[in-house]
Amino acid sequence: MKDFKEKVALITGAGSGIGRALAVELADSGCSLALVDWNADSLAETKLLLEKKNVAVSTHAFDISNREKVSNLPNQVMSHHNQIDMVFNNAGLSIVGSVKEVDEGDWNFGLDILLNSVIQMTTVFLPLLEKRPEAAIINTSSIFGLFSVPKQSIYNVGKFGVKAFTESLALEMEVSDSPVEVYCVFPGHIGTNIYSSAKFKSFEADDAGAAIFGANAATKEEAGINFKHNAPTSPEHAAKVILKNIKKKNKRILIGIDAHFYDLMSRLFPRNFLKIIWILPFVRGLFKFGKKS
Ligand SMILES: NC(=O)c1ccc[n+]([C@@H]2O[C@H](COP(=O)([O-])OP(=O)(O)OC[C@H]3O[C@@H](n4cnc5c(N)ncnc54)[C@H](O)[C@@H]3O)[C@@H](O)[C@H]2O)c1
User: Fold this and answer.
1) At the fourth CATH level, which superfamily is domain 8-194+234-289?
2) Do the beta carbons of residue 219 and residue 150 sit within 8 Å?
3) For 140-149, how does the pLDDT look when each residue is reduced to its tens digit (9 = 90+)?
4) Residue 267 CA, ligand 1 centroid: distance in Å
5) Are 235 and 17 within 8 A, CB to CB?
6) Where are the domains of the chain?
7) Active-site residue flag, 262
8) What is the per-residue pLDDT across 49-61, written as a single tens digit (0 to 9) for each?
9) pLDDT digits (tens, 9 = 90+) for 190-226
């Protein structure tokens, strides 16, 4: 996609972190917005940030795992904006717990948000996107969609699923000469609220997910704060990277020097990958060196 001026983008998870930063960045480029989040207050805060940007903004506060609400969304977006050019399936959350700790309810809750909503959202918007001269679907996976860690099996399955679904869709769009470009985003550690809003079945200071992200702490509250503040990449920088890559048509978008590092290491050492965690203090020093805001 060459530029975002006079386009309309839908962003899920627009009330915080990367979703909010994408909204601000796109509005600055002249793109109108349909913003979705289940947190109505934080969604309203994002809308306030966009007040003087001279673009149309609609807000849609609901849980993206609600199938009926997602089915009704294309009509709502069309009645506000008359067109839709980009869908950012960005919303997500983490569930921390071992396979023995999580139950069927946790699996359904997690996968409905992380994976099934992405599939449904893509499916309901695809016919509208295909009517546009150029359009894009941008699905957010994670570096945890490239390799697995303990106590994140639901998140891992969801994010590996997003990667698989997105790659399959991308191939289908390419062979059918569709105007719809399909992107998969793999953020590394980005300084957002995602670890604070995680659903914890149990908390241990040395959980691998926490260790990788420099969030080691005595309590989960402190870990959430550390996660946000120790990140090598800000959400604003993440949004810039995503949009820059869409303009360049780079379909696989890794964000942050850490994401590139883990991507490489997980390919080189697929079985012993987690053992490299011992060098993390050194590696984290390197990532901070590459920090951008
Ligand atoms: N921050 C990171 O380090 C990181 C790393 C890899 C991947 N990601 C992914 O990036 C995406 C954005 O996350 P973030 O880091 O900005 O987190 P964040 O917690 O700051 O923002 C996520 C937003 O999604 C919303 N949301 C969650 N579940 C929802 C639901 N069921 N319905 C509607 N809204 C919902 C939340 O209310 C929140 O506003 C997520 O998909 C996340 O998994 C983040």
Assistant:
1) NAD(P)-binding Rossmann-like Domain (3.40.50.720)
2) no
3) 999 999 998 8
4) 26
5) yes
6) 8-194+234-289
7) no
8) 999 999 999 999 9
9) 999 999 999 999 888 767 666 667 677 888 888 899 8
